[in-house]
Specification:
By secondary structure, the chain is an alpha/beta fold. The protein has a domain of about 120 residues: GMP Synthetase, Chain A, domain 3. It contains 21 helices and 34 strands. Strands 6-5-18-17-19-20-21 form a 7-stranded mixed β-sheet, sandwiched between helices. It is globular and about 70 Å long.
Length: about 650
């Protein structure tokens, strides 16, 4: 990374201005306007967060805006606010918006329904009363094991309403993974679906819950929503209760509880890309303030928009930009259950066409999936409503970026590739879509009130164009407040490396235009004979090859060079492994980066081990290559079968 050649992707990137028609509708309409507002927000963060707070409904608002510093800080201490009231009540009580559709739901099986803000208001209050009827109180934890359903949103908003802390668990995790999260959060209740659709299969979630709860004594009740009434569902008398039965007798009158802005609101366990998952604690009111600001300015969400975030409720992105940020803006959103390319490869486009979606948020993995299925599939549908495509979760390679903009966005949609973490509760880096020129692969610019920097390990800034450690120098409302039950781990993981700063654990580069390029995790840098090589840079090079859909690079121990890069690639249809192809792939990396980056070996695999958010778990690849098996945490996996197949394939080719 020391030479210009090794960051050629960044230097050669082309600026693409947002279309004039989009700029006119944007909250921030020019680069000059962004820079002026950003500078003001850094010089006077109190004024910026006061401005955001002024757009919220408060039950009590005191004058103090910011108190303390990292790692102990508060926003609006002593003030009272309720997330549920801001996301539901204020729109349900307004005659102009009470009958507006809050959520369009579509199931993988074709089921469709719509819920207005007034209907959502009634349902949320009912389930809030269900929680209270079981004796749950402020600070108690509920584990929610459900897929993308209207009822899932009702449950989570009801928790916010009465101060109950929720922990969503991806509806696909194993009994062991679910048990770990239940026990580690000391949950008193589990709310689950009896079953879920996934690529035409029926996943019996209640059976997973029953297995997970064996030997667990902290859970007093299990509330079961029978998504599929026809599926036989075991119910334990005295512990298990039917969701619909409880709701039928619950009152639709439950006033929102006054909560301190800094009271814990939710726990989200990290996906386990680098070891034991952590229960990240976010303050409810702080999360609301931050996610509202991110969603308003980075997604330009307006009342007339129909917005679809394709991600699963088990991933924090959906909580940030839909459940809280989206609803707090009074948005109409699409909620989809199931696989995005099932029962046919045009399913995603079909949903966009049906609801006239104009803003869509997804992960690069999903966008690459669309690319894999080919543009002839997209051409069958009317996608002309698309104005903005947002991405988060992992690097968005330029080839896929340009394909998505051309094929899905009609060549003139704005693409906003963002960067954030579970711990940041949002995306501190993103484009201001109407103001900042796009660059394929860039993560944009710092958000208002967020002072990001790229430094060496002593905290000193590195020059423009030089890779370093990405840090955040100031506090913001949605920054994680703790690791549940492990304050020491919270402080050591995030605030001990560079005093006075939040250490992201990512490496990045700032270009001459002030845009940030996140290269990957700090531990995803390979030191080969003294050359520090970014795995993301090597992967981006491999993905540019016409034969490659996806690539992952990890370091393998070598007696002479310390570490050598080993690549794992998934091939496009029509390409098969051969000595000629391997030579071509290696030449691609040498041409783009240098001879020192040439992969020692290339493995061809059908799929990569990924988290539910679409991130490749490179730690597992290293373990398979070095030990022949996965030894560390596997609870963040989307599909264990992929790992089992990888172990067979790689061990058979060593």
């Amino acid at each position: 990374m020391e030479t210009e050649e090794r960051i050629s992707m960044i230097k050669d990137s082309v600026k693409i201005a947002p279309p004039a028609a989009y700029r006119e509708k944007s909250y921030v309409k020019s680069a000059e306007e962004y820079l002026a507002k950003y500078q003001q927000s850094i010089e006077n963060p109190t004024a910026f967060w006061n401005e955001i707070a002024g757009e919220m409904v408060w039950q009590k608002r005191l004058p103090t805006v910011i108190e303390g510093s990292m790692p102990d800080f508060q926003f609006f201490p002593g003030s009272a606010i309720n997330v549920s009231e801001n996301c539901v009540d204020r729109y349900a009580k307004d005659p102009l918006t009470r009958n507006k559709v809050a959520i369009f739901f579509e199931g993988e099986n074709g089921e469709r329904k719509a819920v207005t803000y007034l209907q959502l208001y009634d349902e949320v209050q009912k389930f809030a009363n269900v929680l209270l009827s079981f004796g749950l109180k402020k600070g108690d934890v509920v584990s929610v094991y459900m897929q993308n359903l209207m009822e899932t949103y009702v449950v989570l908003l009801a928790c916010f309403r009465v101060g109950v802390i929720y922990n969503t668990v991806f509806a696909g995790f194993s009994p062991e993974a679910l048990r770990d999260r239940i026990v580690n959060s000391n949950a008193k209740m589990v709310v689950c679906s009896n079953a879920s659709y996934r690529r035409g299969r029926v996943l019996k979630l209640k059976e997973t819950v029953d297995e997970a709860l064996k030997g667990v004594d902290c859970v007093n009740q299990v509330v079961v929503y029978k998504r599929m009434p026809e599926v036989e569902t075991p119910m334990q008398e005295g512990r298990d209760f039917d969701y619909d039965t409880l709701m039928a007798s619950a009152s639709a009158n439950c006033p929102p509880m006054p909560l301190d802005c800094n009271d814990p609101g939710l726990i989200i366990f990290t996906s386990g890309t680098s070891g034991r998952p952590k229960g990240i604690v976010h303050a409810g009111g702080g999360f609301l303030l931050g996610t509202y600001a991110y969603t308003k300015y980075q997604l330009d969400l307006r009342p007339e928009d129909v917005y679809w975030n394709t991600n699963d409720i088990g991933w924090l992105t959906t909580h940030i930009f839909v459940l809280v940020g989206g609803l707090a803006l009074g948005n109409t959103t699409v909620l989809y259950e199931g696989a995005l390319d099932y029962p046919h490869t045009g399913r995603l486009y079909e949903v966009v066409e049906r609801y006239r979606v104009n803003k869509m948020f997804s992960a690069p993995t999903a966008y690459r999936m669309m690319m894999k299925h080919g543009e002839e599939v997209a051409a069958k549908y009317d996608l002309s409503t698309i104005e903005l495509l947002i991405s988060v979760g992992e690097p968005f390679n330029p080839e896929a970026w340009h394909w998505v903009r051309r094929v899905i966005g009609g060549g003139d949609a704005v693409i906003n590739n963002t960067w954030g973490q579970t711990e940041t509760g949002g995306t501190p880096l993103a484009s201001m879509p109407g103001a900042v020129p796009m660059k394929a692969g860039s993560c944009g610019v710092p958000f208002f009130g967020h002072q990001l920097d790229i430094t060496d390990l002593t905290g000193n800034p590195v020059p423009t164009g030089t890779p370093g450690y990405l840090i955040i120098r100031n506090i913001f409302p949605s920054l994680a407040r703790d690791v549940f039950g492990d304050r020491k781990r919270y402080v050591e993981n995030y605030f001990s490396q560079i005093p006075g700063a939040y250490f992201t654990g990512d490496s990045a580069v700032r270009d001459e235009d002030g845009q940030f390029w996140v290269l990957g995790r700090v531990d995803d840098v390979i030191n080969v004979s003294g050359h520090r090589i970014s795995t993301m840079e090597m992967e981006s090079s491999l993905i540019q090859h016409k034969a490659v859909i996806e690539a992952a690079v990890v370091g393998q121990p070598d007696d002479i060079r310390g570490l050598v890069p080993v690549a794992l690639v998934t091939l496009e249809k029509g390409f098969t492994p051969s000595p000629e192809l391997e030579d071509s792939l290696k030449k691609q990396v040498v041409q783009d980066i240098g001879t020192f980056a040439r992969p020692e070996k290339i493995f061809y695999v059908e799929a990569m081990p990924k988290t539910r958010s679409g991130k490749i778990i490179r730690r597992m690849l290293r373990e398979i290559l070095q030990d022949g098996e996965v030894r560390g945490d596997v609870t963040g996996l989307e599909d264990m079968e992929i790992v089992n197949q990888l172990v067979k394939d790689i061990n058979g080719k060593k």
